[in-house]
Design a protein that fits this description.
Blueprint lengths: L10 H14 L8 E2 L1 H8 L3 H13 L3 E4 L3 E4 L4 H25 L2 H19 L3 H19 L2 H25 L2 H16 L3 H21 L12
Antiparallel strand pairs: 1-3, 2-3
Length: 226
């Protein structure tokens, strides 16, 4: 899978985005040992940007550094996801509060557009479109918070959450419910309703926790047709 570099985008960013997508979307399974040389050839990039991307992914917990053995894609399980959501809940509330207070008019207008686009993707049962929209939503809210540390920490948390979601949503997820939760949060922030934004941030995490726990039910629903 060769990933051409977009004009003006650093090669290490191109490598990072390509590798993160492969890991999150299951193109590289948990427990897989990684080779810089093989990945560089697969992506059509040099080893240096691939090495820098892998180091960043290791910081985010998607890749594990094994002393004297190399790099391995981190395993994923329910316990780790619940730990991630436990950390994400207060951070999501903080992010909502900061974004509600500090978002610019342009960002607030974008939130309304993103809310509609997220619900539209969910209504079409477009998992990939929904995945990309929620990622854009996260980026928009992080930027609106005007807090670089929040942006840095939430990037780590959201990457882990997205990976678990993508691995299980076709069997256990409800795109319409998830889309409604994301859209409600965006709309409350866009109109400056901080109290409701905090409520909606909690509701989003409540849904994600319910979804995560449903993946270990004894009688899972049948796989959805695509």
């Amino acid at each position: 899978m060769k990933k051409p570099n977009s004009p003006g985008k650093p090669l290490k960013q191109t490598a990072y985005e390509a590798l993160e997508h492969l890991i999150i979307c299951g193109g590289i399974a948990g427990g897989t040992m990684l080779s810089e040389t093989e990945l560089a050839e697969q992506l059509g990039l040099g080893r240096t940007p691939v090495r820098e991307a892998l180091q960043r992914l290791a910081q985010e917990g998607l890749v594990v550094i094994l002393p004297r053995r190399g790099l391995m894609v981190a395993e994923m399980n329910l316990a780790k996801q619940l730990q991630t959501l436990e950390v994400r809940r207060p951070l999501e509330r903080l992010l909502a509060s900061c974004a509600t207070r500090r978002a610019t008019p342009t960002q607030r207008a974008a939130m309304l557009e993103h809310a509609r686009a997220t619900e539209d993707a969910a209504a079409r049962d477009d998992g990939d479109g929904f995945f990309h929209m929620t990622r854009r939503n996260h980026t928009l809210l992080e930027q609106a918070s005007c807090n670089e540390l929040i942006q840095s920490v939430m990037t780590l948390v959201h990457a882990r959450s997205r990976r678990f979601w993508y691995a299980h949503y076709e069997r256990w997820g409800d795109l319409v419910a998830a889309g409604a939760a994301h859209a409600a949060l965006l709309r409350s922030i866009s109109v400056g309703d901080e109290e409701q934004a905090l409520v909606n941030a909690d509701r989003l995490i409540d849904y994600l926790e319910e979804f995560a726990r449903s993946t270990v039910t004894l009688d899972p629903p049948p796989a959805k047709s695509r």
